[in-house]
Design a protein that fits this description.
The complex is a heterodimer.
Chain A lengths: L2 H9 L5 E5 L5 H10 L2 E6 L2 H9 L4 E3 L2 H4 L8 E7 L8 H11 E9 L4 H10 L23 H10 L4 E8 L2 E4 L5 H7 L2 E6 L1
Parallel strand pairs in A: 1-2, 1-4, 2-3, 4-5
Antiparallel strand pairs in A: 5-8, 6-7, 6-8
Chain B lengths: L8 E5 L3 E2 L5 E2 L2 E8 L9 E5 L25 E2 L4 E2 L4 E5 L14 E2 L4 E2 L9 H7 L1 H6 L5 E7 L1 H12 L4 E7 L7 H15 L17 H15 L2 H7 L19 H14 L4 H13 L10 H4 L6 E7 L7 H13 L3 E7 L13 H23 L1
Parallel strand pairs in B: 5-8, 5-11, 6-7, 11-12, 12-13, 13-14
Antiparallel strand pairs in B: 1-4, 2-3, 4-8, 9-10
Helix pairs in contact in B: 1-3, 4-5, 4-8, 5-7
The chains are: A alpha/beta, B alpha/beta.
């Protein structure tokens, strides 16, 4: 399993209710149900993935998080997970607001645009970065609103959203992000995971 | 419309059933058919509910019409609902005309067919009547309750009336209540029948006739609503029916006219006009929230069944939006629900035809539910 999912699974307590927004083929949901007896629900845009989830017996709703989060009642989940999709929304702020409405806590992961390789790509080559976590070219990337760990950190502070935990990931290494080490973690982490709400 | 009764299995429902209209009925026949075998664990029973013009003959050859069962694309050996694995049950709804208690049955009080003396029934009544069949077959809990269109409505109603009698449910191409457009189309069908002079306020069976013209028009209305604009255009376009040019008459010049006429005339051979009146009425009265003070969330409260709601993108009779409303209500009550919209041009009828994406989804759900149900039963 992806390191990112391991970190997310570690954050979650047992026996809670989780909504996985953009659940993909349901691998995270399967893991959470099996290992933590979590009551998981998924929302997924891609038909192929929806069918895969159904074959696995995972509850999944075909739909677009951008337009269809309204169907979930206030505070109806203990946790809402959004893995590496915040940057792909037209209106990430609105989506984030909805996630915080639905879940008592929200776990968001983002590909970090502040990662040093990303920075050097633009600085030295003058080209939009292509990395493992950002594999697409500028003309076909689904990412509309790229941000860095620092950006998301600042956003939460500005909007008075409580950051309960933040983790930076680089390959297999994970480390806690704090205000004091924000600059360094923003430089060396490929991925950021935030527990907010 | 005449059939040999030896081809039809029936049970006598002796337990009194209080209908929504207030009347209580008992000792009435309920016709049914089964496919496959109930296994020892009794974890493989699937109750299929039929739609407006369907009957209990889901798969194989319908012994009455000698045509294929209405859901042969989905149910049968090796199919999405595999009868080599599952025990499939389907009952003819009350109000129907394939052996269950309906308006063409003889009223013992008058010794004549009920006609309009038959009480107005509801989807709830239809579903409640089928409980006796499950008891008769010794099935405490179904693996799945499913159906499309009116069958979907029944599957939803089944879950609200008997929340512990099914492990899962697949309502397909339906809604939680009939929309104004649905009611309007049904009214058109009813008015067509009632405008036929042969109908005679429903008493035609005494003279052993059917209001064929009215019934055929009713069927044509239905058929138009089951297809999509695009599907119809692709299938028929402006193609002419076995002729080179217009005939400047009112014969069926266009293929689409000929198709509708054929559908209409074939239908009158197998269906009773009064049944159409009663069943369409039941659909119009359908409102899942009615017995829950208007709250759908309340209707699904404490729902343990796992749901899969399926809609079809080109279905304008029961739109994706209406199907999604079911999902929203289930979500609001915290139920376990999946949803999939199948992209297709085949309209409302998509669930009855060979639509691979749909059948694949249905199979995936039923098979995975069977594994879960087995595990639950073991524990």
């Amino acid at each position: 399993m992806k390191k990112e999912f391991k970190v997310i699974a570690d954050i979650l307590p047992k026996n809670v209710r989780v909504l996985d927004v953009g659940c993909g083929d349901g691998s995270l949901m399967s893991h959470l149900i099996k290992e933590k007896n979590i009551e998981a629900r998924g929302l997924e845009l891609k038909k192929e993935n929806v069918t895969k989830c159904i074959y696995k017996g995972l509850p999944v709703i075909e739909g677009n998080a951008e337009t269809e989060l309204h169907q979930f009642p206030n505070q109806s989940f203990d946790f809402v997970i959004l893995s590496q999709t915040l940057q792909a929304f037209y209106n990430p702020e609105k989506v984030l607001k909805d996630l915080l409405r639905i879940g008592k806590s929200v776990i968001i992961s983002i590909p970090n645009f502040g990662y040093w390789r990303v920075r050097t790509s633009l600085l030295f080559f003058g080209k939009m970065p292509i990395t493992k976590t950002l594999p697409n070219s500028w003309y076909n990337t689904p990412n509309l609103h790229m941000c860095s760990i620092k950006d998301l950190f600042d956003f939460c502070v500005k909007k008075n959203i409580k950051i309960k935990k933040a983790v930076g990931i680089n390959e297999d290494k994970t480390s806690e992000i704090k205000k004091s080490n924000l600059e360094i973690k923003n430089f060396f982490s490929k991925l950021g995971i935030f527990l907010i709400g | 419309m005449n059939y040999k009764t030896e081809n039809i299995k029936t049970i006598n429902v002796s337990k009194p059933l209080k209908l929504d209209c207030g009347q209580t009925i008992k000792d009435f026949p309920l016709a049914y058919e089964t496919y496959g075998k109930l296994n020892e664990l009794k974890d493989n029973a699937i109750l299929v509910f039929h739609a407006l013009t369907g009957d209990q003959f889901v798969s194989g050859i319908n012994p009455v019409t000698n045509k294929e069962g209405w859901w042969v694309t989905a149910v049968g050996p090796g199919k999405a609902i595999d009868t080599d694995k599952y025990f499939v049950i389907c009952a003819n709804v009350i109000g129907g005309c394939m052996g269950s208690w309906g308006p063409k049955e003889i009223d013992k009080k008058t010794n004549e067919p009920y006609g309009l003396n038959f009480p107005v029934i509801t989807i709830r009544d239809m579903v409640k009547a089928q409980e006796a069949l499950l008891n008769h077959l010794g099935i405490e809990k179904l693996l799945c309750a499913t159906g499309g269109s009116m069958g979907g409505m029944q599957s939803l109603e089944f879950c609200t009336i008997f929340p512990n009698r099914t492990f899962s449910a697949v309502p397909i191409a339906c809604s939680t209540s009939h929309s104004a457009q649905n009611i309007a189309l049904n009214e058109l069908a009813r008015q067509a029948i009632m405008a036929d002079p042969v109908w005679e306020k429903g008493k035609y069976l005494i003279k052993n006739v059917q209001p064929k013209n009215g019934l055929a028009v009713a069927r044509m209305v239905g058929h138009i609503s089951y297809l999509s604009e695009k599907g119809m255009q692709e299938k028929f376009g402006r193609k002419l029916q076995e002729k080179a040019d217009y005939e400047f008459s009112f014969d069926a010049d266009f293929q689409v006219e000929s198709y509708l006429r054929h559908q209409g005339s074939a239908f009158v051979e197998r269906f009773d006009a009064n049944s159409i009146l009663y069943i369409t009425r039941a659909m119009d009265y359908f409102d899942l929230s009615k017995h829950f003070k208007g709250s759908l969330t309340q209707a699904f409260k404490n729902q343990k069944a796992k749901f899969l709601v399926i809609s079809f993108s080109s279905d304008w009779l029961y739109t994706t939006k209406e199907n999604k409303d079911i999902v929203i209500a289930l979500n609001a009550s915290g139920a376990d629900v999946s949803f999939s919209e199948i992209k297709t041009d085949k309209g409302h009828d998509s669930f009855l035809v060979d639509e691979p994406e749909f059948l694949k989804t249905l199979k995936g759900f039923i098979d995975s539910m069977h594994i879960k149900f087995k595990n639950e039963k073991r524990i």
